[in-house]
Amino acid sequence: MSDVQRYWDEFCKTQTQKDLVYREAFQFGVEADWLAVLVVEGKKTATTSGFIFYEIEKEDIPKAGEYSIVLNSNNEPVAIIQVESVEVLAMNEVTEEFALAEGEGDYDFWWDAHVKFFTESLKEYDKEFSPDMLVVCERFKKVYPV
Fold it and tell me: I want to staple 103 with a disulfide (CB 3.0 to 4.6 A). Which of 38, 51, 113, 129 is the partner?
């Protein structure tokens, strides 16, 4: 049994609901350990991803209520989160309040980090960054460990 499955099973034992499933186990961004710590500490309660990547990979965007397992850079599970809300909007319409919920710094830091990340990621698909590109803004809560 994998560490991820073991971690998920431990979480499920703490729940009254049966037959829970998780969407994915993943690392946040390019600094997986730092971002995972922010989630564990409850400082990171939101994330932004590029809508175009869901389209390219033919994946559904996240939905409220779904669970995911947050991994560190060694692909070890460190937390389970549950999506509270999802909104798709232009990146230049993301509010400062939402950017601050990502827990990584002020709005300017958020903007610069996302421009850099999206610019690099889009190059793989011969696409260019645009300030009005659609992004998926997720709010989540850490549900495990409590």
Answer: 38
